[in-house]
Amino acid sequence: MDVITLAEASFESDTEDAVWIPAVAAKHWVILTKDKRIRRDSLELTAVLTARAFYFTLGGGNYTAEDMARIILHHRSAIERLVRHQTPPVIAQLNRHELLLRSSDGELQPVKRKP
Fold this sequence. Notes:
Radius of gyration: 14 Å
């Protein structure tokens, strides 16, 4: 069964990343977010790494809700594969055309799509 839970349903909007990220990871939920601060916010990165979270951010422009839904659905099988086969923490970026997996040195590498 697929279930989507919005963070707002479980946490106040001003909840610190160091609080909500570990709570979400403890439930084995996948984090899908527009928040790109992980690229430059060491506290957020530390929270993801320490909590061993699956963290997917939508990179790129000002996506509408429909754009984001299309992008997530486009990459759904790759996301599911990563969650099944990778040991967390996993940090990745989604955009219209590719899913990029963040390596341990912080570089983004494309994830090959299965035919």
